[in-house]
Amino acid sequence: MNAETKKMLSSYAAKIRMGIIESTYGAKAGHPGGSLSSAELFAYLYFKEMKVDPKNPQWEDRDRFVLSKGHCAPGLYSALALKGYFPVEDLPTLRHIDSYLQGHPNMNTVPGIDMSTGSLGQGISTAVGMAKGAKYIGHDDINIYTLLGDGEIEEGQVWEAMMFANQYKLNNLCVIIDSNGLQIDGKCEDVMSAEPIDEKLKAFGFEVVIVDGNDFEQLEKAFDAFHHCDKPFGIIMKTVKGKGVSFMENQVDWHGKAPNEEEYNIAMAELRAKLAEIEEA
């Protein structure tokens, strides 16, 4: 990855994080932790990887993205707003009664959302359906991406979907798992460990890579491997929950609560400083 591209993506990741804090602070609710850990992925998908057009959200030949861990909508909304699907200024209306930006993605109200999600485990099932549908109509050039949490994959339905993907040889499907080690009730290893995740995916017929999900160069190599694979593809992203905001990093309490005014000011100051550092480099 050249320096210009890396700088561009890093800038978008910082801006996505700022949008996450703006929206959850505006809502006085939401899920910042897992949204922040996925910021690099959202930046990479929407500003380098996926074939999409914000001026034509329903373009039939677009790639599709399904946020299976739907509670991390603040991260997805922030990326979509920066991409131009809707105004960035609307992000602080998250979860407000009259807002189209609700706590989980709604494909009927939000431009750029390909599937309504929220019930954990169900997003990947719709993603494999999309991948099978694209194959069925002869659109092998349409790729389907879905993001799951490492807590989410405790759901049995996830593995039924994996089995389906292998059965129908869905090499247009990329399953991404945000492995930040924390879920709402604590450490994943203490609640219900899914490890070894890579070996499980391989047993279900997937090609698998493990990457630092907060590193753009590793993400680039992973997606390049996806494009040269003849099987369903799995990316296990090792990330830091709450990444980018010092007091949120690796703190399970920030799975599902919003910053107060003091915390908001600290977080935004840190993120503005990071963005300035990136842009001055």
Overview of this protein structure:
By secondary structure, this protein is α/β, with parallel strands linked by helices. 44% of the residues lie in helices and 12% in strands. The chain has ten helices and seven strands. The strands form two sheets. It has a five-stranded parallel beta sheet with strand order 1-2-3-7-6, sandwiched between helices. It has a two-stranded antiparallel ribbon with strand order 4-5. α1 crosses α3 (39-49), α3 (39-49) runs parallel beside α4 and α5 (122-136) runs parallel beside α6. It is globular, with a radius of gyration of 18 Å.
Any key phrases for this structure?
10 helices, 281 residues, alpha/beta
Secondary-structure element pattern, one letter each = HHHEHHEHEEEHHEHEH
Give Rg in angstroms.
18 Å
Oligomer: single chain
Category from helices, strands and their pairing:
alpha/beta
Strand order of the largest sheet: 1-2-3-7-6
Helix coverage percent of residues? 40-55%
Spans where pLDDT lies below 50 across 5 or more residues: none
Number of H- or I-type helical stretches = 10
Number of DSSP E strands = 7
How far from one another are the termini?
A: 16 Å
| Mass-distribution shape | globular
Largest sheet: number of strands, sense, barrel closure: 5 strands, parallel
Q: What is the average of the pLDDT values? A: 97
Strand content: 5-15%
